[in-house]
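User: Structure tokens for both sequences below?

Assistant:
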Amino acid sequence: MPILDSHTIEFFSRSPEQTRRIGMRLGSAINAGDVICLQGNLGAGKTTFVQGLAQGWGSQDSVSSPTFILVNLYRRANGDQIFHLDTYRLESIPEAEELDLDAMLAEGALIIEWPERLGNLIPAERLWINLEHGAEEHRQMRFNANGGRYDELLDGIRQSMFGGT
């Protein structure tokens, strides 16, 4: 696992199960107000990653890609929420503004697929994860933290997966 700088790590997943497990490790540390951006082409593993993330977080709801409805909501027994957005079908920034990301962040964590379509509506402080196809079921994942909270999340992932830096 190359550590590119203190704010970035790269990881190579060799299977959907491994991608899900990485998501579970992150999910176990997610709090209300967190913003997780998932960038990658169709089939890059975003939904698989979110399935693990929601499971690690403790979601009672099953995960599917929200491509056709834009937002899925996942809940825990204690009432905590995660909003899972797929902005692939958004036509414009004004259409994106109607989603009211601030209201969602006031109530839970936010996971955004295709975040590049939201432009500057995405908070500057966030964890940005880029997923790319490798050979067969392999995926390259690059985690980039923007802000102190996300450096903490990255450190937690680094320690849980690799036992330190």
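Moving on to the next sequence.
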Amino acid sequence: MTVASCVVLLVPSAWGQVGVIAAAAIAGIFLFKPEQAAAHDALPITVSHHTGIVLLTVFLALLVGLPILVQTVPDKTLSLIDAFYRAGSLVFGGGHVVLPLLQAEVVPPGWLSNETFLAGYGAAQAVPGPLLTFAAFLGASMSGVPSGWIGGMICLVAIFVPSFLLVVGALPFWEQLRRNVRTQAALAGVNAAVVGVLLAALYKPVWTSAIHQPQDFGLALVALVSLMFWKLPPWLVVVGSGIAGWLLSILI
């Protein structure tokens, strides 16, 4: 976990995260010895092996081909599709892992300010649903064209398409994979590394962009206690933290 966090922070890119996860999978094969999975009823899968291979091939073709297409045909819409498709393809372990990937794609080019990015992230915590829907806010808030609801739809579809291709494409091979001891060991290593990746995402961009003064740390600590110990709903904590931050900015 510690090594994964350090590597991701030292190599702040999508490929840094992919490298950490791949290394953790290899380490898991050698370090973990899971027991053979217990017998269970097979899933009623109707997707053929041929269809699965086609979908996985499309997934890889888009992942490799979109960056090449963007270099050949410079266009902001294509760049958005490439950026959000790549973020959706390389995220592993939960929506929060995608934060540094998205920030690196939309903030440095000037498509979105860092303040707007963090404001949208905070708002996404207050509503139900997967964090990847945050992509719709980013697309709608873009400077220039596309933006608005069209930009939001483009980014939302682009970030979710990889998941559908991977899930449906892997279904025909699911039973074989889940019974494979080496696959289980690799996933155990990946799961350990993902904790470190999440810790790195907590530090950057969340901590480095939001915690500047002692009162910021105090407010974050109160929010953490509210979630973990008082069991308040996330939306209430987000709204309350926003109001408290606004009051602190006036009083201090």
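User: Anything stand out in the second?

Assistant: Residues 210 and 216 are 7 Å apart (CA to CA).
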